[in-house]
Design a protein that fits this description.
The protein is mainly beta. The protein is built from 2 helices and 9 strands; from the N terminus they run H-E-E-E-E-E-H-E-E-E-E. A 5-stranded mixed barrel has the order 1-2-3-7-6. Strand 6 and strand 7 form a beta hairpin. The protein is globular, with a radius of gyration of 16 Å.
C-alpha cells in the first residue's frame, strides 16, 4: 500500500516492523486506476526540454529521460524494507498527470528510476499537510553505487532528521503546487539519484519523509559530487 504511515517502535535500529500504521492511508495504485492513470495506454510524457550547458553538472552528466510507464519489472525491493535506491532518474510524473498509463495519482509525485536495467516507482507525498526543506552535504556512506541498499545489509543505511539538525518546527509547510514545483526544479537536470525510502513491494518504494528511528526518507541529487543536495519531508502531525 502506498500511503503515509508512521513507523512503529523498533527493537533495533536496523529492523523495520512488519506492520506500518495504516489508518487514513490510501492505496496509490487504486487511486491511479480510478483516475485512469493505471490503464494500458503507455503514452509518453514529453522528453525533458533541452537544458543550458550551465545547468548540467559535469560530474552527474546530462539527464536521461524516457517515456513514463505503469509497468515496473524490478524485483530488488521488499515490502516494509527501509533502504536507499541508487539509480538513474528517467521520468517525473506529477500528480493528476494528463497522460494516463504512468502510475499517476493526486497526492504524490512519482519518480521513475532505472536501476540495473529495470524501472522502479518512488512515490513522494505532496499533500496539503506536507512540509519540506533541503540541506547540502556529502552523501552518507556508502558511496553511490547502482542498486538497492537495504538497512541491515552490508551497508549501514541510516538517516535521522534530528541528527542532521532538522526538526518539525523548523521545516516550513508548503502548498501542493509549490511542492510539485520545488521537486520538479530540484530534478530538472538530474541524472544520478539516491532515494531513501521504504519498499511497498519488489518494484517500488514510498514513505519518502520523516519516519523516525533512523529510517527517514530523503531525495538526494548530485550524489556523486562532494556536496549533494538533500530534500527532506515531514507532516503537520510530526513532532521531532
Amino acid at each position: 500500500m502506498l500511503c503515509r504511515a508512521a513507523v512503529l517502535a523498533l527493537p533495533a535500529i536496523l529492523s523495520l516492523p512488519a506492520v506500518l500504521a495504516g489508518a487514513g492511508c490510501r492505496d496509490v495504485h487504486a487511486a491511479a486506476d480510478a483516475a485512469g492513470g493505471g490503464g494500458d495506454d503507455d503514452s509518453a510524457i514529453d522528453a525533458a526540454p533541452a537544458l543550458p550547458d550551465a545547468m548540467i553538472d559535469p560530474i552527474d552528466g546530462a539527464p536521461v529521460r524516457m517515456p513514463c510507464t505503469s509497468t515496473f519489472a524490478g524485483t530488488a525491493l521488499a515490502d516494509n524494507q527501509y533502504g536507499r535506491l541508487d539509480g538513474i532518474l528517467v521520468a517525473i510524473v506529477p500528480p493528476g498527470s494528463s497522460v494516463h498509463g504512468c502510475n499517476d495519482d493526486e497526492t504524490h509525485v512519482h519518480l521513475q528510476v532505472r536501476m540495473n536495467g529495470a524501472i522502479y516507482d518512488l512515490a513522494v507525498n505532496v499533500g496539503s499537510d506536507v512540509h519540506t526543506t533541503s540541506i547540502d552535504r556529502a552523501l552518507f556512506a556508502p558511496a553511490w553505487s547502482e542498486g538497492w541498499h537495504p538497512a541491515g545489509g552490508a551497508d549501514d543505511i541510516y538517516v535521522d532528521y534530528p541528527g542532521l539538525g532538522l526538526h518539525s518546527d523548523t521545516i516550513p509547510l508548503s502548498t501542493k503546487d509549490d511542492l510539485v514545483s520545488t521537486i520538479t526544479a530540484d530534478l530538472a537536470a538530474v541524472n544520478h539519484i539516491s532515494v531513501y525510502a521504504i519498499g511497498y513491494g519488489p518494484d517500488g518504494a514510498h514513505l519518502v519523509h520523516y519516519n523516525s528511528l533512523g529510517h527517514d526518507g530523503m531525495i538526494v541529487t548530485q550524489p556523486l559530487s562532494p556536496t549533494s543536495h538533500m530534500r527532506a519531508f515531514s507532516f503537520d502531525s510530526d513532532s521531532f
